[in-house]
Amino acid sequence: MGVRKLRVIADETFVFQNLKQRVKGVARSLFRAQGRANLASEWRRRLGGAPQLPPGRLSRVLFLCQGNICRSPFAALLLKQHMNTLEVCSRGLRAGRGTSSPVLAQEWAQHFAVDLSAHRSAPLCADDVAWADLILAMEGWHADLLRRDWPEALHKLRLLGDFLVAPPFTLEDPWGRDTVVFGQVFTRTARAVECLAAQLREREQGEE
Known about the structure:
- The chain is of the alpha/beta class.
- Helix content is 53%, strand content 9%.
- The chain has helices spanning 3-48, 71-82, 103-110, 126-131, 140-149, 179-207; strands at residues 60-65, 87-92, 134-137, 157-159.
- A four-stranded parallel sheet has the order 2-1-3-4.
């Protein structure tokens, strides 16, 4: 192999390694930013107490997570079981279109009589934000993204986990994790939905 070809290979290797390190650096920064946002929202809830629902009639509820294959579709279908008079849907902040829920999500959803087998993911769009009377995100960084991209929706944005009565309040992403984590997240999500449904029923009764 000639010297020139060796130099080309060396240069390409250097570029690849440099790019790889940059990608890793961006990923670390991203995860640090997400972690900071989640920590801030966790302490805001612990110090500030349970959230109040937005004023006015709440008939359309939108659940948000990252990929719209685990947490948000489960929460949406479960709330619909609790309150079938509501219009409920779910979307993903970084979702593709048409992805099905993973097997562990479907299995754990069945523990709560929720069937995710027909669910397919969909990304969030401006029409979804405008449609909803109440928007429920799963993590602090989800809420930060929504505030950045749709600041006009801030008044109707809440974190679902904030309706839990005890910490931790963040509903972490179980995707790619084992069945124990899925079980913990889905159980806490179900409790949060129950608490939310109780507040929504109280609101409805007050409007009658």
